[in-house]
Design brief:
single chain, 114 residues
Length: 114
């Protein structure tokens, strides 16, 4: 239970920092947010918790393919001005693209990576 609380605390601090920084220096906040900090921490925490290198390696391979697929969420935001979209429509379309991306990720992991 203590390890879970530790993991939650670390994640909360990073999210709060990035959110705070976005109001001060949005470009830097974007860079910090894009860093694979969550992946780095989650991979280490997973290995520490389960002590299974093969499962941790599969987890890391999954992340490699998930990251570019997750970029689908941001795609509608490139067209806000061009198509006169509001934030919530862009956000909803991004979430829908993310759901589609999940199925693409599952297909890749099961049929290509194995």
């Amino acid at each position: 239970m203590m390890f879970t609380a530790f993991k939650i605390g670390i994640a909360a601090v990073i999210i709060a920092f990035a959110s705070w920084l976005s109001g001060k220096k949005p470009e830097l906040a974007g860079f910090v947010t894009a860093l694979p900090l969550v992946s780095i921490m989650a991979i280490a925490f997973s290995y520490i918790q389960y002590q299974d290198a093969a499962t941790t390696a599969q987890y890391a391979r999954s992340i490699i393919f998930a990251v570019p697929i997750s970029w689908l969420f941001f795609l509608p935001f490139f067209f806000i001005e061009k198509w006169d979209l509001n934030f919530w429509i862009s956000y909803a379309v991004g979430l829908a693209l993310l759901v589609a991306g999940y199925f693409l990720h599952q297909y890749i992991m099961k049929n290509i990576i194995g």
